Amino acid sequence: MYKIAICDDDKKYRRTIKKIIENFLPINEISFYEYESGRELLENVEILYELVFIDIRMPEINGNETALAFRKRNKEAVLVFCSSYFEPTPDSINIGQPFRYIIKDLHDKSLKCEMPTILSEVKRRFSSVHMVTVTSTGRFMRIHLKEILYICLAKRGCRLYKMKGDHIEEIHCKESLGELYEQLKQQGFVYAHNSYIVNLENVEGVAKNVLSLKGGLQLNISRSRKPQFTEALFKYMQERCGLI
Fold this sequence. Notes:
There is one protein chain. The protein is an alpha/beta fold. The chain has 7 helices and 15 strands. It has helices at 11-22, 38-43, 63-71, 90-94, 109-126, 177-184, 226-240; strands at residues 2-7, 30-35, 51-55, 78-83, 100-103, 131-136, 139-144, 148-154, 157-164, 167-173, 189-193, 196-199, 203-207, 210-213, 218-220. The strands form 4 sheets. The chain has a 5-stranded parallel sheet with strand order 2-1-3-4-5, with helices on both faces. The chain has a 5-stranded antiparallel sheet with strand order 10-9-8-12-11. It has a 3-stranded antiparallel sheet with strand order 13-14-15, with no helix packed on it. Strand 9 (157-164) and strand 10 form a beta hairpin. The longest helix has 18 residues, at 109-126. It starts with a strand and ends with a helix. The model has no long low-confidence stretch (mean pLDDT 91).
């Protein structure tokens, strides 16, 4: 389900955007959120939108200011500016990082022309193959799978360890280890111990009963899990090298 926000004080244009999107995506895969002002959008910024359309000229808070405030809470969404005039600011481009800048024209030719590319980018960024959504400190978070090192049991949920730049970040998640394993078992995550699952993509080596992960982490492989883990790692390496 793609969550799409349309922030424009023109109700007719909001309806136009929806109709064009519905020509490309099944209705049961879309959830629309309509806002007449930047203030309304920012009041609902906790919703993890995948795609956001923002009009530049709006009352109260203009589109440039809205985009800057929005990006402080959501850095992943595909952002599209819509305007009758081309009037970006350096901050709106550098910080807002719009994927497209649509000029409102007669018969909405630009919007119709760009929509396939926009939706393809949404699918590329938010494919479940590349990301997982977890609940942490009462908020939803999207995490790129390639960043995750391992996930372990914790009180009232689990702890997720991921690479952030050159250091390791710990995130406490509400979801149980079993719940996340069910989501990730087809994406190269395997139990190395009853209390944690490991991302095979980030395994750098195995020596006896110890595995090494990126970032210098080392974890023990339990005796009961070693055959399964070793087989999974060997198969993963073969697939990555194109041998199977």
